[in-house]
User: Fold this.
Amino acid sequence: MAVLVPYAAARPKTRLSDFLDSPERVSFSRAMLADVVDAVVDSGGNPTVLATEPVELDADATVEVDDRPLSTAVNDRLAAAADDGDDSTAVVMSDLALATPRVLSRFFDADGDLVVAPGRGGGTNALVVRHPEFRVDYHGTSYLDHLRVARDIGASVREFDSMRLSTDIDEPEDLVEVLLHTDGRARDWLLDAGFTVDVRKGRVGVRRER
Amino acid sequence: MAVLVPYAAARPKTRLSDFLDSPERVSFSRAMLADVVDAVVDSGGNPTVLATEPVELDADATVEVDDRPLSTAVNDRLAAAADDGDDSTAVVMSDLALATPRVLSRFFDADGDLVVAPGRGGGTNALVVRHPEFRVDYHGTSYLDHLRVARDIGASVREFDSMRLSTDIDEPEDLVEVLLHTDGRARDWLLDAGFTVDVRKGRVGVRRER
Assistant:
């Protein structure tokens, strides 16, 4: 399956700025992107990174540069795929560090004109699109918006219930999930940067030691 | 399947105190408990609420009062089940407001001497126990602790990947998940209390209007 992996190359992961400086945020976000691309490839998918500027990537994906807003860039590819008669396209966010080949295989194989993996806070972390008229709108509570769009065009919807695909790594408290549940480059990056799991007063977070 | 639903009846959900006063937190936590019990019953499970003090519950479950710490109370029941030769017992937390009969059926049917649904931050939100020697330890990063216990006793482990079971409702930002992804008493409670989904600067949360 053709899999789009959008990547905002400039100033990624600003909400991690209390823990990581700007070059570190770029480096960490690239590690997550490479992990996601690897997982897509290992699940049998064919990834294209849609990047807002050129990126060097140590993983097996085509990189297309498109500096337009996320939804515009994705919708352009969905329209082209529909014109070409492609029957399905997936969109997988580049910060889903917990994605594995196993969960992505199940996700790509799930039935539905639209398969949606919600993120926390009403986001849309991953999509399989099998309806030629479906277009994305990532602004706001995109999960509800995408359900509405599907209903409007008569597309069947499958909600895909996965902790791994629901966990986008945006906030400092998300870093512990990478340490606990993954073994790829993003986890290695955090360990190299001195992060460890920290248990304090029954709450679990991360601590940085250097 | 016998399903234990532990419930801390006194001072529940203290981390919601910025949004809800103490009687409201009790009332909201009871609504979530009733939703979880309903979902267990509708999935074919046989729920027992393990409450730290007597509770009136508008749902179809036995209530057993046990004021000992959570792990002690649960382990006492696991030991009794093993003595009785019961081959499986589940433990499902009472604040999993997003649990549905569908996901619980899949969870109870999953293979493994131990089936674990992790929560965010290294917690253990739900377990199926099919090994007579397994005991819980809910302190700290219980997810890792439970994997280690399973390894030590030679029990096979299945990680159960579910956003719905990973979402325990503890923090104010969790409330939006109840509004977005459920249709039970807990959601009705929040709507009656004036909560709505709030989209601001691209972040999604809740707002309380009265």
Summary: Helices of chain A lie at 22-42, 70-83, 101-109, 142-152, 163-166, 175-181, 185-192.
